[in-house]
Amino acid sequence: MDQILGSLLISFLLIGTIVGAWVWILVLFKKGIMGLIGYDRISVRQFESILVYKSGDFERTLSQGSHWIRAKNLQFVRIDTRPEVHRISQSAISFDHFSLNLLYVARTQIIDAKASFESTQNLRDDVFVQLQSTVKNVCRLKPRVEIQLDQETFGASVKDAANLALRNFGCACLTFELLQTDSAGPVADLSDKRMGFGPH
Hints:
- By secondary structure, this protein is an alpha+beta fold.
- It has helices at about 1-30, 35, 115-120, 125-140, 145-150, 150-165, 185-195; strands at about 40-45, 50-55, 55-60, 65-70, 75-80, 85-95, 100-110, 170-185.
- It is built from 7 helices and 8 strands; from the N terminus they run ααβββββββααααβα.
- The strands form 3 sheets. Strands 3-2-5 form a 3-stranded antiparallel β-sheet. Strands 6-7-8 form a 3-stranded antiparallel β-sheet.
- The chain is rod-shaped and about 105 Å long.
- It starts with a helix and ends in a 5-residue tail after the last helix.
């Protein structure tokens, strides 16, 4: 009886050793030597950054490539840094008080992954609103004719102003193109017509 129990014990130990060795071999092939000592391999693609937080506190940003990290107590946030295109239609008032209907395309990109993640819950919406606000502010500084006839200068002014405004969100305005500008007439005339004071 003792001999049978001894044989069973040896068999279980042998099976456990084989299974354990097989698991180590699998981990070795899957994760490499670093995986055997508790490291995880984190791959960062060309168009993204990864933010590393430890117990809720920012620790560092991982750049493109492969990184071996002990992942215990760490949280990882992937940020897509590819450029994004915004096609926007809005109204604005020129310096000489003309109402304008504008159609433009702006191309933005994240340049500071940490700022883009921590500054807002919805980056796209905030960038959209900031672009609209910037266009309105630039329009207030320029007469209607200049906006309509010199779209390249207007676009450059908006791009520069947008870069300053978007910096707090970790973004930059790469390009700005004014596609269409229609004038709805002087603001005073429009107000008079709504009130019924226009000429008959």
